[in-house]
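This follows on from our talk about sequence and fold. Please put the record directly below this note.
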Amino acid sequence: MKKIIKGDLVVVLSGKDKGKQGRVLSVLGDKVTVEGVNVVRRHQKPSQVRGIEGGIVEKNMPIYVSKVAFLNPETRKVERIGIKVVEKNGKLTRVRVLKSTGVEV
């Protein structure tokens, strides 16, 4: 189980976008794509088959997961995430919890 998953609100800890906040759009191994962070401009060739218009487009590029931290939506503070094994309906399942309070995320 990953500590940062799609849809989490995160804050960037280092790099050119330090301090920016955004939602995680995708998780690809040890990299995450965050909306509004690490935006680059790319030249796009037009394609009639795919219906793509040519020009310069802006897109979000992934950054390493170690450069982002989970932002608690209630307190709006940076929190660390831990994994805890709990029993639900007779089955052991892993859940994400906040390290500071132990509350399930």
